[in-house]
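Hi V.,

You were right to ask for the full record rather than a summary. Here it is.
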Amino acid sequence: MQTKQDHAYHVLKEHIAKGLLLPGQRIVVNRFAGEIGTSAVPVREALLRLEAEGLVTITPHVGAVVTHITGERIEMTLEALAVLEGYATRQAAARANEILPELKGHHGAMAVAAHADDWESFSRENRAFHFLINTTVVNAVVAKTIGELWSQLDTCLSASAFYLMPDRALTSVDEHAQIIAMLEDPLVDLDALESLARTHKFNTAKRLHSLKDGTQPRVSFSVPS
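Predicted structure:
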């Protein structure tokens, strides 16, 4: 059963992810508590959890504000995810038969969404693809850290990122296909699989960096049928 603190946590997190609470915006505890029908205590506890995830910043005598995540922080977060998701993909090889059907479904939906320039659906399916792989991680610390890093990205990337760099969406679909192909191989080279998954995330970080520098402007994009 969900506690009041859990409810406050999930509602706040969803508001931040959807942009209903913007970077730099102050979260008034009593007002928010009234909106969700609870006391201030569960909200304060939820804010402490969100602060631990880097989603809010709490300052004494000021209160909690939604954290502003810089472009540099986004790149560092993607680089950290590259390392951890490389490990996660290596772990996924042991449960490949279990997750492959659903993984292929998300991959196919990504390609369809990209063809339609439906970046919201593309982002959702991309997230589901990675989260399915991440469910195979046995190490609870690694799994928790991956989730927290994704939460940070959710506040500032999502669909808009692929709208701005649709060329990266195409290569991302291709790279996912390569990951699937390696997971299908019962004799897969685990070092090569981990390296591929890491490179996949590093490529997104590099593309975002080039976008920030203005070295590669947005280009028209479609997926061949």
